[in-house]
Amino acid sequence: MSRDENGKIGKTALHAVDLATGELTLIGMPGNITAVNGNGKTVEEHLIALACNPSDGTIYAMGEYRQLYKLDRFTGQAISFASRKKIAITNDFQSMSFGPDGKLYHAHMHPDYEYLMQIDPATGALYNPVTGEAVTVNSDFTNNAARFDKDPQLTALTFDIPANDNKVPNAVSNLKATVAADNANTVNLSWVLPTTYTVTGGAAELTTLNIRRLGIPSSGMIVNSPATSPNGTAYTDYNVPNGEVTYMIYAESAENTGIPAFVTLFVGADQLKAVGNLNAAISGNEVTLTWTAPTATVNDGYSDYDNITYTIKQVKGSDETILAEGVNGTTYTAALEESGVYSFRVYAVSCGVSGVEAESNSVMLQGVEALPYNTGFEDNDGGTLWTAYNPEGSNYGWSIVSGYAYQQLSGKFAQFKTGGSATFPELDYWLVS
């Protein structure tokens, strides 16, 4: 989860929380979820409340625009299946919880009120838990929902429900994941099986061990085998995709699913760091670029340093053009065709993975323009070739600007600002190319 500078909730993601240490393990992002706001516009949606059905493990989430979602607990992906109609909700973290009756409840934070809502998890329909009536919204925007006394704006809602802790296996211990020495896309996993239950006494009797590789796309269940088999304490995962990978391992007894354990590592070809000492030098209308090869990766992962090529981009204002790909060596010469200010971006490529871009210093190609001369004063249309000379400390005179938002102008323009004075003090203000 994150908040912007105004305190609004931004991107949200599903995590697993270790209740003993507070450590978070990222399961995944909800995806590109959208909703329709009060003005009928489709906007980005953020999640504000979470609840898990203890009977089947289904995770529900509420969006800031009143949509109810189901979350895939192995990928974090959100699927919308019900709207909360017209009752307003705030962009702030709230609380939902399943009660002992198996119903979903929400401490609904309205901009002005605080409701206790009962939600049908099958359809998303709203009910007043006091009267049992379906919540309806009248034409004057009043409703028959249940309000908390004095609108306390609750942020935590829980129910005292006895835990189903009969023969729940503890988590595996000493869980390790390493990339194979002979293949960067092979992962070796090892662990020690639990010997006890979380609450129930006696030695743990395990029936199954489950291994999942999390993420998008999810590999689903990799192994589902008797815990006494060779896969009970070690496993090798082949053809793992490049990137950060998280594994979840948990045992089962005949009665219950055990506590999961997680391990995360970087697998496969890694992204090379930026090239070093990138420099652009101009001579006539030719620019020579030089740089040094990267010697490390972003995540300290694998890269084939003996087989690196480079991609070269030319930047002029907002225009970016690929000049060359698959360049061998650490130098490149480009011919410039138009006057202007240019910079160049270079990144390394190895194992099919593009590295971090580096940007060069700027160079300027100057020339004599033909008349009649036209410019839009954009950075890619001659704008960078002009310089304003105004008396030191002056708030007036020449400038090349984008304009204020209220002016509703597109792009840059040159202006001479007098501050409303009919008799401008000095005629020593210049705009020079």
* Number of helical segments with 4 or more residues: 0
Average pLDDT over all residues: 87
CATH class assignment of the largest domain? Mainly Beta
| Rg of Cα set | 31 Å
Count of beta strands: 33
Give the termini separation: 49 Å
Specify the helix fraction band.
under 10%
CATH topology of the largest domain: Lipocalin
Low-confidence stretches: none
Domain count, please report it: 4
Broad shape: flat
% residues in beta strands: 35-45%
Q: Structural class from helices and strands?
A: mainly beta
Biggest sheet features: 6 strands, antiparallel
From the coordinates shown, what is the CATH architecture of the largest domain? Beta Barrel
Overview of the structural elements:
- The model has no long low-confidence stretch (mean pLDDT 87).
- The strands form ten sheets. Strands 23, 24, 26, 27, 28 and 29 form a six-stranded antiparallel sheet that branches.
- It is built from no helices and 33 strands.
- It starts with 13 loop residues before the first strand and ends with a strand.
- The protein is 0% helix and 40% strand.
- It is mainly β and 433 residues long.
Short description:
The chain has strands spanning 14-17, 24-28, 34-36, 42-44, 47-52, 59-63, 67-71, 78-83, 95-98, 104-109, 114-119, 126-127, 146-147, 173-179, 187-192, 208-213, 220-225, 234-237, 243-252, 261-267, 276-283, 286-292, 309-316, 319-327, 331-335, 340-350, 353-354, 358-359, 363-365, 387-389, 397-401, 413-417, 430-432. With 433 residues, the chain is mainly β.
